[in-house]
Amino acid sequence: MSDVTPSGDLNLGIKNLFKILNKISTDTSHINVKILEIDAKLNAMDERFDKMENRISTLEDHEVEDLENRSRCNNICIRGLPESVEDGKPIDSKKKNTYLCSPSPRPNQCPRPIIMRLLKFQTRELLLRKAREKQLILWDNHKISFFQDLSKEVQLKRKAFAEAKRRFRDHMAKYTMAYLAILCVHYEG
Q1: Where does the chain have alpha helices with state H?
Q2: Residue 7: per-residue pLDDT
Q3: Are 175 and 184 in contact (CB under 8 A)?
Q4: Does residue 21 lie in a domain region?
Q5: Does pTM surpass 0.70?
Q6: Strands 142-148 and 137-139
Q7: Distance from C-alpha of 41 to C-alpha of 5, rounded to nearest angstrom
Q8: How many domains would you assign to the chain?
Q9: What DSSP string describes 90-148?
């Protein structure tokens, strides 16, 4: 048997274990710092991604609305024209190859608006100007009105000005609605 003291080797082994544990602890601390940095960067990227997603959605909404309104720039909306009558005779929609988007109105309701597509924008503008100049257009004792064909969104934006326009009319003030939804008031001429 040898007289080797195990306490010397044991102390050396314990010191080596402590060195290894200290290195592991230091490495773990560095890893935790890196994880926190990565987490912060991911959070920042997530916020940027959400902002970009919202911005893209907003741009898409505006672009779709703009494209829809541009596609309607040659259209005129005619209201008040009685339905189902042509030369005093009822129209058979099957013979005329017409496609109706909504059901026929009841006798006490206003007729559906008619959307007319013109080939030239200038023709549309001339027709709308002449209708404004004439003010009252009657056909077979029915008042006919001509309007721009506007998207639902633009109509809702313009509807917000209804009260202001009513007040201007009550005070005989002149105003116009500019495209899209801008109320222009004419002051002193």
Answers
A1: 6-71, 121-134, 152-159, 162-170
A2: 64
A3: yes
A4: yes
A5: no
A6: antiparallel
A7: 55
A8: 3
A9: ---TTTTT---SSPPPPTTSPPPPEEEE-S-HHHHHHHHHHHHHH--EEETTEEEEEEE
